[in-house]
Amino acid sequence: MKKRELLQEKIEHIDCKSFDSTPIVNGMRKMSFSSRQLAVASDLFVKMLRDQKCSIILCLSGSTMAAGCKQLYVDMIRYNMVDAIVATGASIVDMDFFEAIGNSHYKGRSEISDLRLRENYINRIYDTYIDEDDLQACDQTIKEIADNLPPGIYSSREFILEMGRYLATYYPQEESLVGAAYENDVPIICPAFADSRAGIGLVRHQWENPSAHLSIDCVKDFRELTQIKITAGSTGLFIVGGGAPKNFAMDAITCAEVLGEQAPKHKYAVQITVADARDGACSSSPLTEAISWGCIEPRNEQMVFAEATTVVPLIISYAYHSGVWKKRGRKGFQNLFQNNS
Fold this sequence. Notes:
Strand order of the largest sheet: 7-2-1-9-10-11
Largest sheet: 6 strands, parallel
Distance between the termini: 48 Å
Number of strands: 11
Order of helices and strands: HHHEHEHEHEEHEHHEHEHEHEHEH
Helix content: 40-55%
Radius of gyration: 20 Å
Number of helices: 14
Structural class: alpha/beta
Shape: globular
């Protein structure tokens, strides 16, 4: 098969506004296992939205952005269901920004020969295909953004803000998490920003500008996230996957405590994961474990052990059609840093 035959059918992103999951969630509330977990998590997310003092942090890892959930996360920003985002670099750059500049992810097959895919310069995420040539064009775009900024030390939030500015200038018509966050003053922090195509683009930038270039400071990321938590006070987490985004959001409380600042435990938390808790990994550690670390208040946390593309659309549709987001005020946390961005 030729490359053009493999890259034929684009992934389409599900729209939470196009259907109302309320009857499904209400039915699942009477069931067991993951269904009941999903219903409890849906109610808890609506509870976060209804709490006027609560700021909501979306923690995003894994590949749901490429798999068809991008519009859900964009709408969480547009409809004021999230106030700050902590994500992997891959979610923000390889998946969201990549599509915003005109590229696509494609429906594929998990059982195909990966050697055949490599011969065609196609990368695979389970049953999703990505054109490596398009990814390298994305790398080049990241490099060009960096080339046009003053040399110095940046947080990932500062650089992603510039990515949003770039999209607003050249791709204003495209739906994008980075673009929506830029428009609505929602900061995005990627604690492992270089672990993505952004890393490749920025290495090219530094390689060609050895004496005058920009760098991303992950400690500055941590400081800025801690500052957001201190300012926010009451917070709720909506965690898709786990990993570094989840861990950073938890550790911001410990960091504030060490600094002698007031930062209450996260009041609410929902986590969606398929990971097994028995290996002690952060992605799978139950939210109750974070109680022992002093990061979460008990009784308002819910684990949902399910594959996220089957769960997130139902929860976000349920929250959207509840209408409670209409009464929330925007937090504008990006403005905390306007004097040094």
